[in-house]
Design a protein that fits this description.
Elements lengths: L2 H16 L6 H8 L3 H8 L2 H24 L4 H8 L2 H8 L1 H10 L4 H24 L5 H21 L4 H16 L2
């Protein structure tokens, strides 16, 4: 593992445990067993370090969701997008737990999350419109709220994978029956 990756991994762990504001570059250096100067050399600031983590992880998440966004069948898209919380959290639990912990407090985190969700939201509106729902925008908003709650509960450990999958199945059945 490179020193740069060690710093990123240590930062992710500390940001999850303590939050971004409470984590210092000094504590990251100690945790990663590197000099604080090396952190500044690679990233410049703690915010740049966080930006690197968020950018990299949301790029990976976007790659995973691309196949969903390319689904031409409206109902299949809706049924597949509901599975996203488990797929994403299982792909990198540490990141999604960090994101759960900092999302409400960190503007950079919010910015990346919003940019990630927007294409899904647009595709959902189109899908609900195609399926002749009365208010496709509200339906899309409601489903996104459910998806948001699912990933947060799963990433935080409040719901285990089995319960999360059961909730996903329930949501999918409701849309299949409409």
């Amino acid at each position: 593992m490179t020193k740069k990756q060690l710093i990123l991994d240590s930062s992710l762990e500390l940001f999850t445990e303590k939050g971004v504001k409470s984590t210092t570059t000094k504590s990251i250096a100690i945790h990663a067993d590197v000099s604080e100067a090396l952190i500044f050399k690679y990233f410049g600031t703690k915010d740049n370090l966080l930006d690197e983590i968020l950018r990299s992880e949301y790029q990976q998440a976007s790659k995973k969701t691309l196949e969903y966004l390319q689904e031409p069948d409206a109902l299949k898209y809706i049924l597949k997008i509901v599975e996203l919380p488990v797929i994403l959290v299982n792909s990198h639990r540490a990141f999604w737990k960090m994101q759960y912990n900092i999302l409400s407090l960190n503007q950079l985190s919010k910015k990346y999350h919003r940019a990630f969700i927007t294409p899904c939201e647009d595709h959902l509106k189109h899908a609900f419109s195609e399926l002749n729902y009365t208010d496709p925008e509200l339906e899309a908003e409601l489903l996104l709220m459910l998806i948001d709650a699912l990933w947060k509960h799963y990433a935080s450990g409040r719901k285990d994978e089995q319960m999360t999958r059961e909730l996903i199945g329930l949501i999918q059945r409701k849309y299949m029956n409409n």
